[in-house]
Design a protein that fits this description.
335 residues; mainly alpha; Recoverin, domain 1; 2 domains; 2% strand; binds calcium ion; EF-hand-dom_pair
Length: 335
Amino acid sequence: MVGSLTIGIRAIPRQGFESRKGRHKQSAECQQLGEGPAGNAKVSLTQARIDMSELDEDSDGFLQPHEMEFYIRGLIPNLAQLRDIPAAFVQMYCRIAAHKFFFFCDPHKRGKACIKKVLLSNCLQELMELHQEREEEVTDTEQAKNWFSLTSAQLICEMFLALDKDTNGTLSKQELREYADGTLTDIFIERVFDEHVWRGKIGGGNAREMDFESFLDFVLALENKDTPEGLTYLFRCLDLHGRGFLTTADIHTLFRDVHQKWIEGENYELCIEDVRDEIWDMVKPANPLRIKLADLLACKQGGTVASMLIDVCGFWAHDNRENLLQEEEEPQEEA
Ligand SMILES: [Ca+2]
Ligand SMILES: [Ca+2]
C-alpha cells in the first residue's frame, strides 16, 4: 500500500534490494528498447516482460512497488543518461521512477501494478528514452520534462526538501502552499489534503501531513493534468461535495480563490460569472447543470479547465493563450 509508506524522505529503509540481487538478469537486449528498428524494440519488450515476470514473486502478473523498483535498478547500468547517477541516490531514484508506474498503472492504489499494463504504458517508453545518449545542447529544463531523467528526480527531491521548512520529513498544508511559488489556491490545497492525504502516524493522527509518496502523486497529477489519471486526481479535489459532479456554485467557489490571487497580483478586474460561462462553453457538459469527470475528459480541455480553477498561473496562461491565438490568426486573413 502506498498509503502505508508514511516514512519521511530522510528515513528510507534499505531493504528489498540486496536480498534479491542476482535474480534479475541484465540482458543485452534490454539495451535495444526505445531505440533502433522496430524489430529490436519488440525483442526488448519481450525481454522486459521476461525480466518483470521473474521479479513477480507470487506470479500473479502484478509487481509490487519494491519489485518495480528492483526492475528499474537493474536497468540503470544500461541507461546512458543515468551514467552519472550518484550511488547514494540510486535508491531514491528508483523510488521516484517506480512511483510514476504506479500512478498510471495502479490508479486504485492496490499496491500492485499489472505487468501487461506496465509494458504497454507510455511510462516504460519514457524510461527507455534514457537509453539514448543525451544531446549536449539539451537544457536542464528540457531534460526535466522526462520524469525519469536524473535532473527531474533530483529536482523533485530538492523541491520537497525546500518545502519541508520544519524538516520533519512531511509537508503540512502551510508548507505545501508554497509549491510552485504559491500560485495554487488555498481551497485546492485544502481539498488535496481532504482527498489524497491520509492520516499517518506522524502528527499524532490529528494534523494531516503529506508524505513523500503523496507528494509524488501530487506532482504527477499536476504535471499530467490531461491524462485520465491526472484529471481523476484533480477532479476529486474540485468535486467539493464529493457528489461526482460540479455545479456552477462549485465553480464559483473554486474560482473565487483564483480571483483573489489574481487581484492580489494587480491584474485587471475579472468577472467571475464570465469565467464560469467560459468554462461551461469549453466543457459543454452532457447535463447542462453538471460537469462530470467524463465531460472534462471528453472535451479535451479538462487539464486547462482544472488549471484555471486551481492555479492563478494556470488561469493567466489560459487568458494569455487566447490573446496569442488571436495574434497568430490575424496575419492569415489574407489567405
Ligand atoms: Ca506479484
Ligand atoms: Ca514539514
